[in-house]
Design a protein that fits this description.
Rossmann fold; alpha/beta; eight-stranded parallel beta sheet; 3 domains; 20 helices
């Protein structure tokens, strides 16, 4: 029960089930004191305020940290209805989107630098279940954003290089749906439990479309199970190694920014877009539209999204373990074993190297049925993404012989239940319904388009560096989404460092860092044009 009352100082206050949410004397002064003590003296860039009440806490944050972005989460719609002020970015449980989706839409990768999460203790006590769920949601989203930052810092230039080279080097692309609209789909990942799943998949092979992640292709091929489709998003060279060893000879669904070299393997390509600036620019330059698949940081989530969008039938995950089982990080055979065998010797045997590799990525572990289950931070983040997607499509996503890592929202299967699930599906065509896309331009036209885009990027980066040198770098980036996207892809780590410097008061250092990263990014883009053979004209 929510009961409004007037504090002794004359400001509105509130009781929840007879307990005061704010001070009955001076709620504004109480909020200011709490925020000052909680935030401390270190500058912050973004504040996520959990358990906002009538707005006094948000106002105190704005007063204490006027440069920070404020995101508020109220634990009760009834409390929120009595608020005297609200932040521009605010959520309560009556919102049309869940808290996780709200946070994903509100907080970007750069916002994580200098982010602080604070919670009003009275709200946590009065709404303990909502508080627990809110803290879990914030933790999951911040973990995802940190993962995205790390990925962009490590892979940004690889994405750019791959997108350009794939555009100019892939001579034929396919169009058409990945599968029939009611076809059951099984997605094979490369976790150790895939080995147990293979006989069950073989028994229903004629009734399913089998999709593979690149690292599962070798094990499927060795078992005589040739996939109908491979989903590829990783820009790293190991994806090509997996496919080379597997010789799958099936269509590969991939964005332009995925690993280069598909033209050497000779497998047909069906392009998709992850909605990035790079893909929009390059695909627009050649006048081609492709299906959209939002990036999630893991190819498994992309494959799941594509399958759910392509078929009304059940989608089953096999070998998606999201953990290492003792020293087993992947199913065998696997191309990664070639790397371990290359270092194998009398003092460092193969299994010892495998154990060391499994332990190196471990962030937590536990014993389940006598087996050590090892989880890494990245796999824990992927599990959050996948659980979020499965929960949103409850009853459509299944797991065959799953690992001990739970994915809420999925339905667990053994071999007999998989057979029953597949046999109950309506009869429909098997395999991808694809054919060559006649709109795909010639090699010369693609090269010219790529050079035109690179030339424009060089000019944008050059102008941005000049503006940042002459004035406010933040205004230069804010005034040009194209410049901000280019800087993020080419120098994410430097962008984060510049924002940190600015937050801590080193304005000159931040400006110098931004000018340097924009100039370096321009040199990198020019080098891509030079590699195409004709060069990119200087601005």
């Amino acid at each position: 029960m929510v009961e409004p009352f007037t504090s002794r100082g004359g400001l509105p206050s509130l009781r929840v089930n007879g307990v005061a949410l704010h001070s009955p004397y001076d709620p504004a002064a109480e909020a200011r004191r709490f925020v000052r003590e909680t935030l401390g003296a270190t500058p912050v860039s973004t504040v996520v305020l959990l358990g906002e009440g009538l707005g006094y806490l948000g106002a105190a944050v704005i007063e204490t940290a006027p440069e920070a972005r404020l995101v508020t989460v109220c634990y009760s719609p009834e409390v929120d209805r009595h608020a005297v002020r609200r932040a521009a970015a605010a959520w309560n449980p009556s919102a049309p989107v869940g808290l996780g989706d709200f946070l994903r839409r509100t907080i970007g990768e750069l916002d994580v630098e200098g982010l602080r999460v604070i919670e009003w203790p009275a709200s946590a006590r009065l709404f303990p279940e909502v508080s627990q769920q809110a803290n879990l949601a914030v933790r999951a989203v911040v973990r995802e954003l940190n993962g995205s930052c790390a990925t962009a810092a490590a892979m940004g230039r690889l994405w750019m290089r791959g997108a350009v080279w794939n555009l100019v080097s892939i001579d034929t692309v396919l169009e058409g749906p990945p599968c029939a609209p009611d076809r059951p789909v099984v997605i094979a990942a490369s976790g150790p439990t895939l080995l147990r799943c293979l006989p069950d998949i073989a028994r229903v092979r004629s009734g399913i479309d089998l999709w593979a992640l690149p690292s599962a292709a070798c094990a499927l091929s060795a078992a005589g199970l040739h996939p109908d489709l491979v989903v590829l998003t990783d820009p790293g060279h190991w994806a090509m190694v997996h496919l080379h060893f597997a010789s799958s000879r099936c269509p590969v669904l991939m964005p332009l920014s995925a690993a280069r070299g598909m033209w050497r393997i000779g497998e047909p390509v069906r392009l998709l877009s992850q909605g990035t600036f790079l893909e929009r620019e390059l695909l627009s330059a050649v006048g081609v539209e492709v299906p959209l698949a939002e990036p999630h940081g893991t190819v498994a989530a992309t494959a799941l999204d594509l399958a759910l969008a392509s078929t009304r039938g059940p989608v089953t995950l096999a070998g998606l373990d999201l953990c290492a089982l003792d020293s087993e990080t992947h199913v065998r055979p696997n191309a990664f074993d070639a790397l371990l065998r290359a270092d194998d010797d009398r003092l460092s045997p193969h299994y010892g190297l495998a154990y060391t590799r499994a332990r190196a990525g471990e962030s937590s572990s536990r014993i389940v049925d006598g087996l050590r289950v090892r989880v890494s931070r990245s796999l824990d983040t992927y599990a959050g993404w996948l659980a979020h997607r499965a929960a949103a499509t409850r009853g459509r996503v299944f797991r065959l012989h799953p690992s001990p890592v739970e994915l809420p929202g999925t339905v667990l299967l053994d071999g007999s239940r998989l057979s029953a699930l597949v046999s109950s599906a309506p009869a429909c065509a098997s395999g991808p319904q694809m054919h060559p896309d006649p709109r795909w331009p010639s090699a010369a036209a693609r090269r010219d388009a790529a050079l035109s885009v690179l030339s424009r990027w060089v000019k944008v980066l050059g102008r941005g560096a000049a503006e940042a040198r002459a004035g406010s770098w933040a205004e230069a980036l804010a005034g040009s989404p194209e410049l901000a996207d280019l800087a993020w892809h080419a120098a994410a780590r430097d962008m984060i460092d510049a924002k940190r410097r600015q937050r801590l008061g080193d304005a000159a250092g931040a400006q110098a860092a931004v000018v340097g990263l924009l100039e370096d990014a321009g040199a990198f883009v020019r080098s891509l044009g030079a590699r195409l053979g004709t060069g990119v004209p200087l601005p």
